[in-house]
Amino acid sequence: MSLPTSALGAGEPASPRGVGGAAGDVEAFGVGGEASRAGGSGGGIRGAGPDGSGGLAGTLGRGSGGAGRGLGARGPGARGFVGRRFGGLGALGALGVPQWIALGFLVLLVVAAVVPWLLAPGDPLAIAPAEAFRPPGWGHPFGTDESGRDIYTRVVHGTGASLVIGVAATAIGVALALVLGVAAALGGRVVDFGVSRFLEVLFAFPGLLLALLVITVYGPGIVTSTIAVGLATAPGYARIIRAQTRSVASSAYVEAAVVLGRSRGRILGRHILPNAIAPVFVLVTLGVGQAIVWAAALSYLGLGAEPPAAEWGAMLFAGKNYVATAWWMTFFPGLAIVLSAAAATVLGRALQRRGPR
Amino acid sequence: MPLRRHSGPPRPAILRSLAALGAAALLLAGCAAGPAATTATPASGGTLTYATGFGEPTCLDPHVGGNMPQALVGTNFVESLFSQDADGTIVPWLATSGTPSADGLSWDIALRDDVTFTDGTPFDAAAVKANVEHMQDPATASSTAILALGKVTEVQVVDPTTARFVLSEPDSALLESLAQTWLAMESPTALQRTQEENCESPVGTGPFVVSSWTKQDNITLVRNDDYNSPPAGSAHEGPAYLDEIVWRFIPDSATRFAALQSGQVDVIDEMQPDNVVAAESSDQLDVLTGALPGASIRLELNAGYAPFDDEKVRKAFIASADVNPGIESLFFGTVDRSYSVLSSGTPFGASYPDDFAIDPDRANQLLDEAGWTGRDADGYRTKDGQRLTVDFPISTNQSIPAEQSLFEQIQATTKEVGFDVELHPLDLSSWYAALGAWDFGVTSAIYTKNSPDVLRILYHSSNIIPAPSGYHPNNAHVSIPELDADLTEAGQTTDADQREALYADAQKILSDGAYVLPLYDHLQKIGYGPRVQGLSLLPTLQIPTFYDAWVQQ
């Protein structure tokens, strides 16, 4: 019974690197990340699970009827997860200057998304044809567009749409990935085979193409493009979650919990899921940045927000017609997209470096 | 060599190429200013690249459907029985004359006897008959041609060079109709092929021949070396100068203009207003403009369905849709506001500016009277819990970005009195589908026709029923017996005064009923680069012709 003890020790809050799971976590995560970026060729991930598919299901099945209770071993995995989370927050103190700038910018974005009128009291849709095409200056810090709308006001009010799309799309992607990944990892050989092949098929398409397909079927709009981006990112997350889940499920502390006779739901909820998901949270931070760019790309293609909505991609689209004469119409929304994606990425990388390694 | 300039509204003569002029300035010192660069002798050979923003045709045979993309490319390889000069007078082309019978119920069209289609088939009265039958065959799925030939019951072959058009009622617009590219003559031999084949490579008598069509990339046209039927007003005879025209599709206007600036393409259409201004002040680029005949650019209010089935709601919309500030700021002085349903290039246009005055108070009062008294949280009016929503499908192929911005401004000003205008930019086929299903409150549809008879096409109640192509030109769903009577009578009489009175009355009925909000004239705006010489617009539909065009090697 030495296993639970060591796992508990590893889960102590003081250690930012407190990892309940095996070192295999990190490897699987790294490989998964590469594979998702490469958009395919996922052979590496499949090696991450230490034993054959279906093994875990068998283990759980045996365990439920098995060994005595009363050892009082707590789910070390959960502790480890909690510990890591606190460790992550504690690590804020160790952020460098770029990370602080990125964090500050993200806070500003959240403010702009939640209470845009604090930063820009005007109406983003108010037209003033007489003031069309004004360059940046007093009164209009970012200039005006072809209908005389204030671009600063529109960029600020567009934050909400971009941020909501970014976060919601990522949430949809992760939620879907969770179902697929866990099902593949724990559902037995047949389910694993089915889900894995399905994911490989999805991987064969570039993510944006998948999003375009969804939009073609369901029509353009903010809700559709959010779902589309979410669906398009799901396969990447699903692979990582599958590899993580298998690795965690075969770990000693899960086996211990099984031996202790914990119910399957409890083992899944308290031990496996938290440990399997933790690394994904880091990736999500990076994913939000990517989702913002994708959502803007879809709006730019005329498949996201409909005119004259204040949305960064749609503003870029409207501005490109006048790029030779009114550069500010594309520059400021473009800058907003670049900075938010960059900020999310800088923070994501920082978390990744401090993460489970 | 005198250069044939554009017709349409008079414009100051633009010097052909200031750069070339500058280079030649020393030599020309003391000479009168003039388009010196064009005095060079036209040179045969070379390839010209054209980039269109009107969209890629789904079929190159202009009889099928019948829209502007087809007419633009089709003008290069098919020709019509008649043409029009800059004043709009009908002049012979493949036909030599047209003579009506005393009762106006038949026309004898005399034909040239020396013209051959590019597949070797001779052009004769039997060919004319075969063409009219092809256009009127429901299987062809024509819209423009079949509507233009609505009064033609049959074509009789009197002799090889005389075709008799038999009419159900007199048609004062017959020859104008026959001058349109959508009613152009195609080889009867080629028409016997499957529609698929004929769409790929229609065969005409034009100065160029369709060589290949790579979908979503380009159409390649090569010179017809046996060409002998140039339209009136051409600058030379015999075959065209260009070896080849590469017809490309660049839907995005900014990209299209950039391609012209960088020399990747030689000629572009559908120029943005700011690009027109930039090109006119550039010493490398030039612009040809002409007012397209037919209807002006206008909003059609769908009077067949709620909420615009209520005249008060239509009037409220028009009284709150502020157009003029946008026309001034978005179009950089390249267009004027129009208060007429007809374009300035079409005779008998009547303007009623007072019917389009902006008056938000009156709009509010009208909406109150119409029962739209509630207001929801967003400030939109409601009636019985329903929001006053107006769906506005926009064809991104037909409406240039400046026009779409104008629609956004209309959305903003009508919102002030409580309209919820929802803009839906759509590709051409989705837009046609939305119109076909009457799934819109307001839309903007172009209709080019070289005759005021376009009013009958657009607003006669019979054209609420779709043509074989599925398109119903009467998008405003106007059904007024007096209007139908005016339009029918005006289409039958040849008396100019009577036609003017009838068309004026018809336009007053439309204006009073608030079915249409005219915006501005539809201008053909063709930009071209420094290599291109001798380019002009055929007056009939203001479509560029490349017969006289040549490129400097």
UniProtKB/TrEMBL annotation, chain B:
The organism of origin for this protein: Herbiconiux daphne
CDD domains from the UniProt entry: PBP2_NikA_DppA_OppA_like_15
Protein name: ABC transporter substrate-binding protein
Locations listed in the record: Cell envelope
Pfam families in the cross-refs: SBP_bac_5
InterPro entries, sorted: Peptide/Ni-bd, SBP_5, SBP_5_dom
Sequence ranges assigned to domain Solute-binding protein family in this UniProt record: 89-459
The entry's keywords: Signal, Transport
Membrane-spanning intervals of the chain: none
Presence of the UniProt keyword Signal in the record: yes
Family per record: Belongs to the bacterial solute-binding protein 5 family.
Extent of the signal sequence: 1-32
Top-level taxon of the source organism: Bacteria
